[in-house]
């Protein structure tokens, strides 16, 4: 089995941020505008995620379209989990943020105890990939809870939230450039891209009276999905081209 996850490049982070935005606006659209409600949307997306994850696990290498489809669905499900805890069960965002932090830390601890590495450059077994996707799910749930805590409970707002979370990610990038632990910096940035994407989605979709641009959840979701599809198609073409070159005589 070849490595099952993509290289961490600028395109990787662009798609990741846009997928979190789609997770935020897409979940809101299905639950509110379509009228499915939080529970039905959560169950529907969880079932779809399970089906797509099975396909992803059956692959023997990184396949851009199935990998990023899984990420988008994990984003939606992670958002729905946090929203259900907050809206349905009325669990405090302080509690859910702490709980997801503990769950993520436990996932990393078990992952490292079993595999002796947390590197995403060695996702070459099904067991490691299961640890990887469990961590991804908790990063989305934690990012949603922490983002809502900052922008709503603490009154930061999505306008300031975009700037604040972008600044934190820039700080992490600077720390990485200065020699900080690459694995730690990756996962911290991965968590923070969730509230950044959510704040960006709110900024674009919310009406002008609330400080947003007023595009609405439909147009915001469609715009970001279009860019994601275009980038994933480009990555797929690049990958096919590289494999063709390697397979060619004398390559």
Automatic annotation (TrEMBL):
Q: Where are the transmembrane segments?
A: 29-55, 62-81, 93-114, 130-150, 162-192, 213-237
Protein name stated in the entry = Membrane-anchored protein
* Keyword set, alphabetical order: Membrane, Transmembrane, Transmembrane helix
InterPro entries according to UniProt: DUF347
Specify whether Lipid metabolism is a keyword of the entry.
Answer: no
Q: What lineage, starting at the top, does this entry show?
A: Bacteria, Pseudomonadati, Pseudomonadota, Alphaproteobacteria, Hyphomicrobiales
Q: Does the keyword Membrane apply?
A: yes
């Amino acid at each position: 089995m070849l490595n099952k996850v993509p290289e961490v490049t600028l395109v990787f982070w662009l798609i990741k941020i846009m997928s979190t935005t789609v997770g935020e606006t897409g979940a809101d659209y299905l639950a509110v505008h379509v009228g499915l409600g939080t529970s039905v949307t959560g169950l529907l997306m969880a079932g779809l995620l399970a089906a797509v994850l099975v396909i992803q696990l059956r692959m023997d290498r990184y396949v851009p379209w199935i990998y990023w489809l899984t990420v988008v669905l994990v984003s939606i499900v992670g958002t729905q989990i946090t929203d259900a805890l907050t809206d349905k069960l009325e669990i405090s965002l302080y509690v859910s943020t702490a709980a997801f932090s503990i769950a993520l830390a436990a996932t990393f601890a078990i992952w490292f105890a079993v595999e002796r590495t947390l590197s995403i450059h060695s996702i070459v077994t099904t067991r490691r990939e299961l640890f990887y996707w469990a961590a991804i799910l908790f990063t989305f749930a934690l990012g949603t809870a922490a983002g809502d805590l900052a922008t709503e409970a603490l009154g930061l707002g999505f306008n300031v939230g975009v700037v604040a979370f972008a600044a934190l990610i820039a700080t992490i990038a600077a720390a990485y450039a200065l020699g900080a632990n690459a694995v730690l910096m990756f996962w911290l940035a991965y968590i923070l891209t969730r509230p950044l994407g959510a704040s960006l989605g709110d900024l674009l979709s919310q009406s002008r009276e609330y400080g947003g641009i007023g595009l609405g959840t439909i147009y915001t979701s469609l715009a970001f999905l279009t860019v994601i599809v275009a980038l994933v198609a480009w990555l797929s073409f690049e990958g096919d081209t590289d494999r063709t070159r390697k397979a060619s005589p004398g390559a």
